[in-house]
């Protein structure tokens, strides 16, 4: 598996269709043009915005036009993914029997459907209109790392969505949305030790480092932004690992990149050689990965409460 991948976000939403033109067909055609344009940046993954395939329809029409996955929408998006040799995150309304979900579909480099995430926390208005909440926060394997999702309003529910993904070892969280997200995106990246890519139709979409700072962002002058990131990387606790820093640097030198986040009490290690595993370094030096350590803290707390008769 390659260490590095180029992530691309697009601040884009489809324009209204011409008179007499099918909105869904127009939306998807515009998405294909957008993917082709974004792919000129050389991205391995391109993230598009929430439910773009069903824009410019009122809600009853949009739900009526929901499609199964795989289906005509994902087949057309898949053609663009295959043509450009990249993954694409596509937002749409998915029909599953009688139910309709607000979904993010991960489409692979060969145009195949890799996985589907169904928005776990639709807005109250969406649920009143008939959108059925999803029940799982899956993580999908790609040829560069493990990818998970949240959609728009989901961002307010990190416990229910983010932590299950972190426990599955998520490395990248894609967030198609209808609002910008702001510091919440940095919080998710930091809490779950994952890169975050946001995409919405507004002007500023971001790619966030797992240490919680922005790597790239779209702006008012150009709607596409990309960042090269290393997936052979993990975040560790400073308090249990700082005594090993000199020893790690002395042994591995420029074969690793180490970043110290003093205020947050963490540090990250990235492997720069194809044959170097950060997991092996962690095992060799007894480093505590942050997310599993937090899980252990919860278990120890529960044990302490039970011993105190308060469990």
Count of alpha/pi helices: 10
**CA-based shape:** globular
Helix percent reads 25-40%
β-strand number: 15
The CATH homologous superfamily of the largest domain corresponds to Carbon-nitrogen hydrolase
Structural class label: alpha/beta
Q: Classify the beta-strand content into a percent band.
A: 25-35%
Using the coordinates shown, work out and report the CATH topology of the largest domain: Nitrilase/N-carbamoyl-D-aminoacid amidohydrolase
Secondary-structure element series: EHEHHEEEHEEHEHEEEEEHHEEHH
- For the residues shown, what is the average pLDDT? 95
CATH class of the largest domain, named Alpha Beta
What is the rounded Rg? 21 Å
Biggest sheet details: 6 strands, mixed
Please report the distance between the alpha carbons of the first and last residues: 44 Å
CATH architecture of the largest domain: 4-Layer Sandwich
Q: What is the topology, as strand order, of the major beta sheet?
A: 5-4-3-2-1-12
User: What is the domain total for the residues?
Assistant: 2
- Unreliable runs, pLDDT <50, ≥5 residues? none
